[in-house]
Amino acid sequence: MQPDVHEPDCLRRFTRLCVDACARGWHEANGGNLSYRLDEDDLVALAPLLEPESQWHGLKRAVPELAGAHVLMSASGAYLSNVAYDPSHICGIIQLDACGESWRACWGFADDARPSSELETHLAAYATALRAGDGADRVVYHAHAPHVIALSTLIEPSPRAWTRTLWRTMTEGIVVFPQGIGALPWMVPGSPELAEATCELMAVHRACVWTQHGIMARAAGFDEAFGIIDTVEKSAGIHLGARAANGGAEPRHLVSDEQLRAICERYGLTPNEGFLD
Ligand code: 13P
Ligand code: ZN
User: Is 133 part of any domain?
Assistant: First the structure.
């Protein structure tokens, strides 16, 4: 019998995000992955379930910022759509050693399941977030959002091009991601190069587009992680729809730079000036 893992709040929220995101069509097969950095209250609630394995696994790149941390993470190859039915196979909790150089499983990852192939990207994103000190450091989430992928086949993979396209399509964009979003050209999934390039951009941005692949976000909580990807995905879809309705050409009536500045003034936002004209 598997323990009842639905009780701890972080597992309930983890499951809720997976279920909601799968309903949106963001996770075909085993596409995408999710992690959560546990806090002290989570550790108290989960203590009866934690049984650390003796075997440690070395990381290619150390993350001293995460020394001793516990991270709940989806398993490699797991279908996120199944997390509600079979949590201990679909995800698990790892603990980092005292130097942040290796990890061991403490719960879940049943039948030799292993953390996501993007484990090192997730850990590097937490390290980046903690260094940035902006509080968006509890959840790292990667989704195969279809409109983001479609738009990535049309526009250049630059943070400025992506940010301006989305800010100017839908008013809410600059409210949800005033720092703008990052964007990278196609890279091998799970590779150290992708992890490094993503983290460089995520020092400034809360989300980063992976061309022809999807998007990764870091956030203070599950709602914020879902919310930023939902907003990027929705505005990408609106932009694609407007462009198609306009015979494939750039839509003519977009939010102007003056209007973007007015939104920031009204809502007390500090936008990334590099993306405004
Ligand atoms: P995992 O199943 O290893 O998490 O990989 C899915 C994915 O989307 C890789 O980018
Ligand atoms: Zn992926």
Answer: no
For 244, the token pair is 């198609």
Pocket test for ligand 1, best of 27, 28, 71, 76 (most atoms within 8 A of CB): 76
Ligand at minimal distance from the CA of 115 is: 1
Q: How many domains does the chain have?
A: 2
- Residues 149 and 274 grouped into a single domain: yes
Measured CA to CA in angstroms, residue 226 lies from 5, 34, 148, 238 at distances of: 22, 11, 14, 18
Tens-digit pLDDT profile for residues 202-257: 999 999 999 999 999 999 999 999 999 999 999 999 999 999 999 999 999 999 99
Helix (H, G, I), strand (E, B) or coil at 64: helix
Identify which of 97, 119, 116 has the alpha carbon closest to the alpha carbon of residue 106.
97
Task: Dump pLDDT digits (tens) for 32-87.
Answer: 999 999 999 999 999 999 999 999 999 999 999 999 999 999 999 999 999 999 99
